[in-house]
């Protein structure tokens, strides 16, 4: 059997010394390309960052109470520019971990190196959220009548479309439907 390792000629000292600087230079070039984004100081958009934003923002106390539940979790996270400033914002939904589904949601605007709470919807159950336009968010939740069990709302569904007006989110449209849509 032929030993390929012994048949291969080892690289010369000159070849090794020139190959490494080229590889290092290539890596440094890639690092330099990535550096401007980090230098801008934009905060990370991640599940961990969403939890931290909720837990450290005093105005988000009601949503924090849900997130602190024993089975609670960040249900959805969108890292997308919804405030039309060219910087990704963080839209996050929180589930209590039980049958009520998404119980609240919030939008944190990216301003420099910080997140600022610009929309908070902390109290509900079975929220459905969609980012529908460049700066629009559609919200739907069931309407429960007095004797409705948690599984079966009979009051239809309340829908709201929030739109960024350049300074804050406003309700652009509100309507009720008989079915989830």
UniProtKB/TrEMBL annotation:
It holds the Pfam family Lipoprotein_21. It comes from the Bacteria. Residues 1-37 form the signal peptide. Keywords: Cell membrane, Lipoprotein, Membrane, Palmitate, Signal. This is Uncharacterized protein. It comes from uncultured Thermoleophilia bacterium.
